[in-house]
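Final report, Chapter 2: Outcomes

The project's central promise was a pipeline that accepts a single protein chain and returns its three-dimensional structure in a standardized token representation, suitable for archiving and comparison. That pipeline is now operational. To close this chapter, we reproduce one record exactly as it appears in the project archive, with the input sequence first and the structure output second.
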Amino acid sequence: MALEVAVSPAALKRLMAASPPSPDPAVLEAELDRVRLEYNTVRLHAGIADVTPLDEHEGRGPAIRTAREAGLESEHHKEDTVITRQGTTAVLPTLLDIPALAEHLGVTPRHVRRLVAERRIPYVKWGHLIRFNPVEVAAWLEKARVPDGPRP
């Protein structure tokens, strides 16, 4: 059973840009088969829940999502890295990226980016990469905590 999908005009234009369509029906059908194959088998996003339509159709979707979640969970529990150089030892924390911090805080990655843009959250900028030290984020959260009890 072949998996048929609808391809948006923009996606079809992008996929067929390499070779303009031919008026020959056999060539057109071969090109459409190539586009369907690419659409059904290429992951378009690197998010945790993204699987291809073919993966879903063949029942691999839940297994892929479970494996990715397990991989992310093991990354969160890695111990800090110890680096020794010329007699000195440095302990480097495992830094979080924007999606991992957003998931941990229960907010969207867009909200985390806004916090960074407004300089309201501690972060490390390394080139174009933005990372977060979990210890600094925990201290930031503790500082923002509102105490229990009646309002003054």
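Archive annotation: The first strand starts at residue 81 and ends at 85.
This record, like all others produced under the grant, will remain available to the consortium after the project formally closes.
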